[in-house]
Amino acid sequence: MSKFAAKAISTLFAVALGFLATSAMANTDNDAIAERLQKVGSVCVEGDDCGGAAAPAAAAGARSGSDVYTASCAACHASGVLNAPKFGTSDWADRSAKGMETLLTNALNGFNAMPPRGTCASCSDDEIQAAVEYMVDSAK
Fold this sequence. Notes:
The chain has two domains: 1-29; 64-137, Cytochrome c-like domain (Cytochrome Bc1 Complex, Chain D, domain 2), CATH 1.10.760. The chain has five helices and no strands. Helix content is 55%, strand content 0%. The chain is mainly α.
């Protein structure tokens, strides 16, 4: 065999080996990419069968006005932060003269320094109303 033929065969063998190695690496890379693209979790929508997933917290029932006040309202209304009407004081008697509808609208939409729904974004309108009634009743 001539030197040229031996060199050609050697070169072809090296090229073939390179293609095989590249193909194996490409498959490994594709597998790794597919693994990285797998879903991390899923969303369970209320009313769907989610395979035994825990029921949403809202299904536990409405919280009382006292519970909502303690969890979300007391941070400001217990001490009067930023002129919030204090719980159990005549501040609420003065405000109740405006009517429950006005107080509820202010609680839901925000008023002065108070953000909408106070600090309870997860509260229903009924729970907000129960908390407002609880605070108004505290002044009586």
